[in-house]
Amino acid sequence: MNPLKAPPGTKIALMGNEAIARGAIEAGTYVMTGYPGTPSSEVLMTVHEFGKGLDIYAEWAANERVAFEIALGAAIGGARALVTMKAPGANVAADPILSAAYSGVDGGLVILIADDPGPITTQTEQDSRWFAELSKLPMITPSNPQEAKDFVVIAHELSEAVNLPVILRTTTRVNHTVGPVETGEIKPPKKYVKFVRNPPRFVRAGMVWNRERHAWLLQQLGKVEDFLSKYGLNMVEGSGSKCVVTEGVGYEYVMEALSKLGLKEGVKVVKLGLLYPFPKRFMSEVLRGCDEVLVVEELDPYIEFKVKELAYELKLDVKVAGKAEKLLPEVGELTPSTVLKAMKGFLHLDVHESEGVERLEAPPRPPPLCPSCPHRNSYIGLIFGILKAGFRREEVPIFGDIGCYALSVNPPINAIWTEHSMGASIGMAMGLKLSGFKGPVVATIGDSTLFHAGLPALAEAIHKKVDMLVLILDNEVVAMTGHQSTLTWGKTELGRETKPLSIEEVVKGMGADTVVVVDPYDIDRMISTVKELIRKPGVNVIIARAPCALHAARLYGVQKRYTVIPERCKECMACIKITGCPALYIGEDHKVHILVEDCLGCGLCAKYCPFDAIVEVSKG
Question: How far apart are CA 80 and CA 98, in angstroms?
């Protein structure tokens, strides 16, 4: 069943992100944009898969800042808009988001920020609840897929009621949990209404105007709790003087723990759906009936601080416990068992030492580059090229960037030295060189990341005539987050015709000293090109271009595979030690074997087998 077109009242199992996409359709959202970033990516991906034929604009942007500005431009014209991003993406979009709080909007504007406790797929465990404080924008948070859908609609209503963008903050377990969702009525898309020239509102160059808009912003925030009171985002379940205050997925874990303990009616559970501005009036009434409070939340003790502050203001004799008392961890995501252990401690029940400790059914392992990934060839070619040029590996720093190519940090490739933030590889490599580092430096960056945040740093390096090698890993797709479109595509997921951008033409136009396009599967040419350019003065760019092997296999099938002739294998393990391809494994006979269903036919392992034991198997 199409989750975006299902009639009202349909009960369907949806992932949280799918439910958010449905909520956007129900709310009459016309402009949807964002930048891929797990755990938020599936929202727009759902619209792309199921939204064909709908009267909407739903496309990826070059980065989160651009995406937000598109959504803001739509919303100040009266249209409803949604912009999606993961937590670090909010940092990229912070400048326009903070200014948007002063200008406000007329159409509903919802900013989905997906945090990643764990972290599971993100470079930091950023707690974006503080971002609401910084930006002074309302923030609400759902606990399950049903609320994820419903809160999108509520967020649009709130946005238009107070004329402010509204942040919908989720965490990984809400984004990726599958649960029952009942669909609601679908409103027609709300498009442009009007846009009137109003410099005091929209021009931030006027300092007097900015003071006036700041006062206006604080006034609008004062209306948020009153408006949301009719929606029941903040609620109380159960009764008693022992109170648990929670939000997001923590609420689900608390209710599960109370069910296991048979105490659903003996504890008062306070669920907060509004995080900012903190619902003081609601919480003031709740706290007066509590003797002890446990705050259950992921990441920072954000709510814990708020509750303690409010109890102090009200002069209440109430004990508030949580992360500060070490009942819950500040690192990593919550789990049912850690919450159960905390609940037992709070309720003075017996706690066994084993409780709160998760059992791993399988040993952990670092995520590998996929079989036949062109980035494996690119980095092996880069390393061998450095060696061929007469340098030792430890003499040439290789700066990495955000993307699946960052997995080259793992053995046996062990390529990149850093992976900091989107687009940072070029700027950091430049900085090291400018600091007085005498040897060559290499910056590696993906195609999508280049357009996202790499171009300004590249322009800076070219302008300042810094000697460095830039390796652009172009696999023609945003691969790690689920194979989304890039600015080089001629048609988007929804079929919108575009003007594709050429990476080499853009880089040449910026003035790079050398630009060479290489097929990384031609590893000998890759090695020789690196050897030639690593010593050459200026900003020299290699574009290693080959389609993502996994994406190509899904689109066109696998044309060839490889297998091992056991009699020829001498157990030297050269293929494994050099490539680290996950399709290779060591059998009980101590020889190398290939998982045929995983092999995508690049032939790199065969190239480095000194005994010709690995041979091609034709398609079929």
Answer: 19
User: Is a pLDDT exceeding 70 seen at residue 361?
Assistant: no
Q: Are 169 and 113 in contact (CB under 8 A)?
A: yes
Check pLDDT > 80 for residue 53: yes
How far apart CA 189 and CA 194 sit, in angstroms, is 15
Nearest to 493 by CA among 32, 15, 112, 17: 32
Helix (H, G, I), strand (E, B) or coil at 329: coil
- Do the Cβ atoms of 100 and 72 come closer than 8 Å? yes
What is the mean pLDDT of the segment spanning 550-572? 93
CA pair distance 413, 173, nearest whole angstrom: 32
Rounded Cα distance between 505 and 332, Å, is 44
Element (H, E) at 95: helix 94-103
The pLDDT tens digits of the residues spanning 189-230 come to 999 999 999 999 999 999 999 999 999 999 999 999 999 999
Are residues 94 and 239 located together in one domain of the fold? no
For residue range 232-270, what is the model confidence (pLDDT) as tens digits? 999 999 999 999 999 999 999 999 999 999 887 789 999
Percent above pLDDT 70 for the chain? 98
* Element of type H or E holding 31: strand 31-34
Q: Residue 574 sits in which domain range?
A: 558-618
Hey, how many other C-beta atoms are within 10 angstroms of the C-beta on 240?
A: 16
CB distance 54 to 9 below 8 Å: no
pLDDT, position 480: 87
Integer CA distances (angstroms), 283 to 41, 104, 272, 277, 549, in order: 34, 28, 9, 12, 53
> What pLDDT shows up at residue 312?
96
Q: Give helix then strand counts, H and E, for the chain.
A: 24, 24
Task: Report the distance separating Cα 170 and Cα 39, nearest Å.
Answer: 9
Q: Does residue 149 contact residue 26 with C-beta atoms inside 8 Å?
A: yes
**Six token digits for residue 612:** 């010709």
Of 553, 576, 596, which residue constitutes the final position of a domain?
A: 553
- Residue 375, classed as helix, strand or coil, is helix
Q: What is the pLDDT of residue 559?
A: 85
State which H helix or E strand residue 552 sits in.
helix 549-556
Residue 352 within a domain: no
On whether both 142 and 53 belong to a single domain, the answer is yes
The yes-or-no verdict on residue 103 having pLDDT over 90 is yes
**The pTM of the whole model exceeds 0.70:** yes
H-helix segments, 389-501: 424-434, 447-449, 455-463
Boundary-marking domain end, from 192, 215, 230 = 230
What is the tally of structural domains in the chain?
4
Question: What dihedral do alpha carbons 223, 229, 232, 237 form, nearest 10°?
Answer: 120
Cα separation, 323 vs 308, in Å, equals 12
Percent of the chain's residues with pLDDT above 90 = 91
Asked if residue 345 has pLDDT above 80, the reply is yes
DSSP 152-212: HHHHHHHHHHHTS-EEEEEEHHHHH-EEEEE--PPPPP---------HHHH-TT-HHHHHH
Claim to verify: residue 41 and residue 190 sit in the same structural domain:
yes
For 288-369, where are the alpha helices, taking DSSP H only?
Answer: 302-313, 336-346
Measure CA of the first residue to CA of the last residue in the chain; give whole Å. Answer: 34
The verdict on 113 and 158 lying in the same domain is yes
Q: Are 238 and 226 within one domain? A: no
CB-CB contact of 310 with 284 (8 Å) = yes
| Over residues 477-489, mean pLDDT | 92
Dihedral sign for Cα atoms in the order 525, 528, 534, 539: negative
